[in-house]
From TrEMBL:
This is EAL domain-containing protein. Residues 24-278 form the EAL domain. It comes from the Bacteria. Coiled coil: none annotated. It comes from Massilia solisilvae.
Amino acid sequence: AARQDGPGRYRFHTWEMERAIRERVSMESFLRHALERQELALQYQPRVSMASNEIVGVEALVRWRHPALGLVAPGRFIPIAEETGLIEEIDMWVLNEACACAARWQAQGLPPVRVSVNLSARLFQQDGLARRVRAVLDEAGLPPYRLELEITESTVMHDIRAAQMVLHSLKQLGVAVSIDDFGTGYSSLSYLKRFPIDVLKIDRSFVTDVMADPNDAAIVRALIALAHGLDLEAVAEGVETIDQLTFLKANGCDEIQGYYYSPPLWPEQLALMLTKKEHSSLH
Ligand code: C2E
Ligand code: MG
Ligand code: MG
Ligand code: MG
């Protein structure tokens, strides 16, 4: 379509592409050094139980303090890291950092929480994942049940037999596993029941319009029922309003995560929040 708009339009397109490629190449080379320069940092977003109104978990979310661009969200660099293979190193760094942080909170006597870490497909497919996770837990001094690994549907559906084996080894280790962004990918329900997983995280895209769109409301209800039918916990992502919260609670959702309760926080802010017992914003 760009060609048909005439030569000027086409050149504009090329210029835009060039700029995009330049940014990519520069991001890529900066990203290679981000780890050694200690430019990566973690924020933690609380996950709240509907039954107790308490923070029961936190999700570690990686940020990049880029020297020129400032704080860069993972959406801008995780895809590049995945293509270049840097993601494995980044995910291992996140795992180490999150476990060390959780162990610190535990040592400080803060209320117990489970820390969730997002795992890329590439790391999930690496040999000896459970062994590596165990080494990280040992090093941090964190009990396995305090760690949850978040993987996506495509990660487990990529190679079902291999995924089953990895999931069993993680189960044996004693860490929890959740399926992230659930409902957005392709997963065969008949396989889902055979995976030893613990949590379904209902994707934000269904939660956003749950009050306005009857289809989304039906989907969310069905996903909660599916989770419970498979003996899994249902967690809703991206909860921003009291109406969404009320809907989710009325439909038996176990936990919620989202801006309504809290955005992702720096470790000190999260620790402060954990020390405050009253979570009065929830009803
Ligand atoms: P995710 O795992 O589904 O994480 C939830 C995302 O939703 C986070 O975005 C979080 O900030 C955002 N969010 C939470 N509550 C709300 C809400 O109420 N409204 C809206 N609009 N957004 C909300 P973030 O931090 O930008 O992360 C984006 C994605 O990047 C994550 O999605 C995850 O897939 C990936 N990611 C983050 N950290 C890591 C990591 O350490 N390793 C890997 N492999 N991926 C990561
Ligand atoms: Mg996640
Ligand atoms: Mg998610
Ligand atoms: Mg999501």
